[in-house]
Design goal:
153 residues; mainly alpha; two-stranded antiparallel sheet; 2 strands; globular
Length: 153
């Protein structure tokens, strides 16, 4: 492969977005630091809960870097990134914003969610996402990303 200015610019933009996303996740984790997760993985049972995180492409790209080979879809409707036992996240360090915000009814912590900070975080995430993918229409459900890229089984 020969050097290309366009590929070099794109690689630089992707590295910059990755660094910005890591800093963003640290800020998100700090915002939610007073909350706790009981570790039941109930919130990861996407079909049963009827809820799932929505990801910008930059977040999906981070998940894909963490797991280059997509796992098989789970028969139980749980998040495909749960371990075999369905109890632990295999992409925990790279999990998207929606998985960092404790949308589980069993979470512990303050009675009031950090709504104002979440609004600011979501706006910041959109800026990071649109810097890399300006024409992206918006975030998509995790399962939509997974189904789009999962090989036919």
């Amino acid at each position: 492969m020969t050097w290309s200015a366009d590929r070099a610019r794109r690689a630089h933009a992707e590295r910059k977005a990755g660094t910005a996303l890591e800093a963003f996740y640290r800020a998100s984790d700090a915002t939610w630091s007073g909350f706790g997760c009981p570790g039941t993985a109930e919130c990861c049972q996407l079909s049963k809960r009827g809820r799932e995180p929505w990801l910008w492409r930059v977040e999906w790209d981070a998940v894909r870097r963490a797991v280059p080979m997509l796992p098989a879809a789970r028969a139980d409707g749980g998040c495909p990134f749960l371990d075999e036992d369905g109890r632990r996240c295999t992409v925990y360090a790279s999990r998207p914003l929606g998985c960092r915000t404790y949308f589980c009814h069993r979470r512990t912590g303050p009675a009031r969610e950090p709504a104002e900070q979440m609004d600011q975080l979501q706006r910041r995430l959109e800026v990071i996402a649109r810097d890399l993918w300006p024409d992206e229409p918006g975030p998509r459900p995790l399962t939509a990303w997974f189904e789009h890229e999962a090989p036919a089984r």
